[in-house]
Every structure is written in structure tokens, then in C-alpha cells.
Write a structure and sequence with these properties.
A six-stranded antiparallel beta sheet has the order 1-2-5-6-3-4. It is flat. The protein is an alpha+beta fold. It has seven helices and six strands; from the N terminus they run αααααββββαβαβ.
């Protein structure tokens, strides 16, 4: 190295000395930290704690049903059973009603067809009745009329009760019994059917009597009565001032009819004496008037049947009109 280069070397050495000193200081510090680290106690390594296994939730058994709950369940079961019974009964009733409607419809169609057939047939001219001649014929005719009269009221009561029968078969049964004494039906069935029919008539008798009273009241509405006695209401038709006296002889006319106009009794200009020997209704009517006067009485048949003889064709619910006039 020449002297010429010496100043430069000194100059660079001066520049590098602080850096070298700093590096040495840093090395000393690193060595010091390393020694300190080696002198520190060792820290144990913590192992991770094992996670607990999932445990299934315990199922708590349900407590037994309380007595009151069991009672309610029994009641519900009983109600369900009862509803099922009612449902079955209702279904049966509906089926029966449907069958009846079908039967009625079939009967109606049959009657309509018979009516149409009858319309197409030529009209039959009724032959005049031959008057019975001998005593045997006339007595037989009289007996037939009497039996028929008794039957008429029964037939009318059957119709008024809402029952339906065949008139042709009724006549056939009557004729067969008279001519041969035989029957196309057993006696057991006839007895059973007659009992059912009679029971239906008896059940409807109350309503028929109520209707009879309604008709009676309609005839007498707002009229002034002379006397109401033993179920008969009397009214003046032709008033007079002087009434009859006991044992007085007078000419009496009496006409007894139903509200429908059927004549029960009719006699005129009969000489009678006004006394207690007269029939009850005749005596009551005559006691309310005198010569030249007239009265009328109204009643339901059932209210006078015990005091005034009525023919068997009069029904208990028929309205009776009693007309009396004195000359």
C-alpha cells in the first residue's frame, strides 16, 4: 500500500467503526437473550381436553291415566256408540219412508192408469131398479137396505178417519159371505185387520168430534139462544107470546136432519097432547113455544143419542138439526 492510499483507508475505517460497534452490541444482546432463555423454567404443554360424548335424553314414561280421564273416555265411547245406534235407526227410518213413498207412487200410477182406461170405455147406462113384488121379495129388500144403512155409517167413519178401502172388495166380501158362507181370507187375518181398523177409528174419533163441534159453532155464531140443555141449543124461528099449557092438544110438525141434509125423521100435522109422556126433545121444543110458533134445536149426535133414537148410519160427530113447528 502506498502512502498515497493511506488517507482513503483511514477515512473508510472511520466510517465503518460505528457500524461494527453496533453489530457487536447486537450480537452481545442476542447472546444475552439466548442465555436468559436457556435459564427459564420449562412450561408444560397443555393437551386438549377430550370432549364428552353426547348422551341421549332420558324418556320419562307418561303417568297412568287418572280415574277421571278414564271416566271421560268411557263416556265418550258410550256417546259414540249411542250416536252410531241413532244413525242406524235414522237410516232404517229413511229406508222405510222411501219404500212407502215408492209404494204410494206405484199405487198412484196404477190408479191413474185405471182412470185413463175407464175414460176410454163407453159409459154404462144404469138399469132401472126392479121393484120387489112378493112379500118375500119386499122383506128381503127391506132387510138388505137395513143392513146397508148400518154399513154406511161404518164406511163413512172409515173414510173420515183417513183410511182407504176398496168398495168393490167390500161388496165382494159381503156377497161371498151371503151366498157361500166362505172367505178368501183366513179368519185370523180378518180379525187382526178389523182390530187395527177399529183402533184407527177410535184414535181419530176425538179429532172428528172436535171438527163436529166446530161445524156446530159455525152454524150458531152470534145467535141468541132460548135455552141450552142436555147438549141441545134451542133458537126461536117464529116467536109467539103465549106458550102451551099442560095437556093442550096441538098439531105438530117435526123434521130431524143432519147438517148434510140426510133426513132422520119427518112427520107433520100429528095431533099430540103436551105432557111428560112425549119424547124428551119433542117435549123440550114444545115447552119453548106455543100455537103458531116454531123453534129449532142444534146438537152433536153423541150428545142426544141417549135421549133421541137415531138410525145406525148417524155418526157420533154428525151435527143434528131439530125443527119443530106448531099450528
Amino acid at each position: 500500500m502506498t502512502q498515497r492510499h493511506l488517507p482513503f483507508v483511514l477515512f473508510f475505517t472511520a466510517l465503518l467503526l460505528p457500524a461494527l460497534a453496533s453489530a457487536a452490541a447486537e450480537d452481545d444482546m442476542l447472546h444475552a437473550f439466548g442465555d436468559a432463555a436457556r435459564t427459564l423454567p420449562s412450561v408444560p404443554v397443555k393437551n386438549p381436553k377430550p370432549q364428552p360424548k353426547p348422551v341421549a335424553p332420558k324418556i320419562t314414561p307418561k303417568p297412568a291415566a287418572q280415574p277421571e280421564i278414564q271416566t271421560q273416555l268411557n263416556q265418550l265411547r258410550a256417546q259414540i256408540i249411542e250416536l252410531e245406534k241413532q244413525k242406524a235407526a235414522l237410516q232404517l227410518k229413511n229406508e222405510q219412508q222411501e219404500k212407502r213413498l215408492q209404494a204410494q207412487q206405484a199405487s198412484s200410477e196404477k190408479l191413474t192408469a185405471e182412470l185413463e182406461t175407464a175414460k176410454k170405455q163407453p159409459a154404462v147406462v144404469a138399469q132401472p131398479l126392479a121393484e120387489p113384488k112378493s112379500d118375500a121379495e119386499r122383506d128381503g129388500y127391506m132387510l138388505g137396505q137395513s143392513i146397508a144403512s148400518n154399513t154406511v155409517v161404518q164406511l163413512q167413519m172409515v173414510k173420515d178417519s183417513g183410511l182407504t178401502i176398496s168398495l168393490d172388495q167390500m161388496i165382494a166380501g159381503f156377497t161371498t159371505q151371503l151366498k157361500t158362507g166362505t172367505s178368501a181370507m183366513s179368519s185370523e187375518e180378518m180379525s187382526r185387520r178389523y182390530a187395527v181398523m177399529q183402533d184407527a177409528i177410535n184414535k181419530n174419533m176425538g179429532s172428528l168430534i172436535e171438527k163436529g163441534y166446530a161445524q156446530l159453532n159455525k152454524q150458531l155464531d152470534k145467535r141468541k139462544t132460548l135455552l141450552t140443555q142436555n147438549g141441545v141449543r134451542w133458537f126461536a124461528v117464529k116467536p109467539v107470546k103465549t106458550k102451551l099449557i099442560p095437556e093442550q092438544q096441538v098439531e105438530v110438525s117435526v123434521k130431524i136432519t143432519t147438517l148434510g141434509g140426510k133426513v132422520i125423521n119427518d112427520f107433520a100435522n100429528d095431533q099430540v097432547a103436551f105432557d111428560n109422556n112425549l119424547p124428551p126433545l119433542l117435549y123440550e121444543g114444545m115447552s119453548l113455544t106455543g100455537a103458531g110458533g116454531a123453534v129449532e134445536g142444534w146438537a152433536l149426535a153423541k150428545d142426544i143419542i141417549e135421549r133421541e133414537p137415531l138410525p145406525p148410519w148417524v155418526a157420533p160427530y154428525d151435527v143434528i138439526h131439530y125443527q119443530l113447528a106448531i099450528k
